[in-house]
Amino acid sequence: MNDLAPPPRRDLPAGRHEARRAHLAGELAAARRPRGLPFRFSGRRLVFGGVTAAGLAAAVTAVLLVPGDGKERGPVVMNAAATEVLNRASRAAAARPGLHPRPDQFLYFESRDYQAAEMGSGGLERPQSGHRRAWFSVDGSRAGLIRNSGDEGIWLCEGSGELAKREAAASAEGREPPIDLAHPPTGCRNDDVRLTGMPDNVEAMRRWLFDHRNGQNPPAVQAFITVGDTIRERYVQPRTLSVIFAAAARIPGVTVTRGVTDLLGRKGIAVGQTWQGHRQELIFDAATYAFLGERTLVDGQGAPPPGATASPGTGDGGGTGAQGSVVYASAEVRMAVTDRAGQIPR
Fold this sequence. Notes:
By secondary structure, the protein is of the alpha+beta class.
C-alpha cells in the first residue's frame, strides 16, 4: 500500500458486465490512490458503535522538540498520549509474526466496513455495511479475486486476453461472466500487493510520509492520512509496519480518543487528527496495541493540527451530521495466505 486508499463501495450499476467490471475495477484503482480531504468515503471499513461527543475528549498535551514537514520553526506541539500509543503500536507490530507466502500463493485480506448515508446528488440514500474478501496473487501472475458482501466477485487480472474473450462472449449473450474458481483466467499481470522498498529507520520514514503525501491538505494532515493509505489492504512486513507507526508518532497534531468499540466488539484506542469538520483516526487494540482499522467522525469542535489555520467545520470538507457521528469506518478481520483465489483460510 504505498499509495492505497479505501476502495469505493457503492451499489453496482445496472446493465451489462462491462459496467460491473468497470465499477469494481474502479474499486481496485481507488484502493491504489492516496486519499485526501474533503472526505468522500465508501469502502471496506468497520462500524464503531457508541461514539459520542464525550468520546472526543482531548488528552494532556506536551511540547516536544520533534521535526515536522521541514518548514516549521521552533517547538512543535504534540500530544504526549498519542505519541505513547503509536510507540506501543510500533512495538506490537515489531513483535508479530510475519507471513512468508510462496510466489504461487495468494495474500488474503478480510475486512468489515460501514458507510454513512451521504447528502446531495449521487449520495447514498441509507447507511451501508459491508463484508469484503480479497485475494491477491503474490507474484502477480495469477488471477486475484474481490468479493463484497455476498457478491459473486470480480477477477483481478490485468492484460489477460483469455479474460477479455470470456467477457465478450458473456456480453454477447447479455449476461454476466460467471466466476468459475476451478478455471481462473490466465495471462495476468497484476501489481505486487507486498509493500517493499520502504525506509528502515524512523526519521527517514517520517520524511517519506511527508514527501509522498498526495492531496491539498496541510502537510501534517496529509502525512497522517498517508499512514492509513500506505498500510491499507497491503502486506507490510512487521519491521516496516513498526517503523511506520513510530514515524506517525512524530506527526504534529495527533491526539487520542479512548473507549472505542468496533463492530466486532473489540475494545480499542484511537489516534487521529481533526481538519475541516472531520476527524480521521487509526484504531488500535486497547490491550495489545495491534492495529484494528480506521474511522472518520464528524468533529466540529476539535482543534486543527499546527500549521492548519482553517477553522474546523469550515470549507468544502466541513462535517455534516451530529458531533461524534461515524461517517466511515473499517476494521481488519484477518490476513492470511491461501493456495487459491476464493479459498477461505482456516
